[in-house]
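FAQ: What does a ligand-bound record look like?

Like this one, built around zinc ion:
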Amino acid sequence: MEKHEVIRRILLASVFGNAAICVLKILGGVISRSTALLADGSDSLLNVASGAIAYKSRIEAEKPPDLEHRYGHSLLEVYGFLLILMLMVATFSFIGFLAINRLMQGVAWSIDPIGIPFAAASLVLNTVMSILLRRFGRASSGENGVAPHKPRRG
Ligand SMILES: [Zn+2]
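The answer part, i.e. the structure of the complex:
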């Protein structure tokens, strides 16, 4: 498999995996009224969005130069990165708002135990996905013998 193709597949796999985790967490957060699950879910949503943007901008960036873009499209990846950065700021502001809101209320909050299976399921899914992605990443780097050492996110 070509290296670019591998990167694309990894990005795509992480988008779908995070989408599933995100649905579980937000659903669980809403049902159980758990701020922690909701905050976690919005973090996963950020992962989905940033993964999708990274995927899309990489595909666009690889296009050869055309009449409108005589110097190629590699700048698109930079714009994609900036967009991801803005989404991160928005998400962490939201999570911060949730946390402050909870602190201000100051009441003892009971979490509906129905949130627990959602949290457990998303944790399992998260673990399986990161193991698969790591294996996949290692296998794809076999040709040149250089192991990719990316910092883990999420
Ligand atoms: Zn173009």
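Follow-up question: can I read anything off the structure? Yes, for example: The chain has one domain: 3-140.
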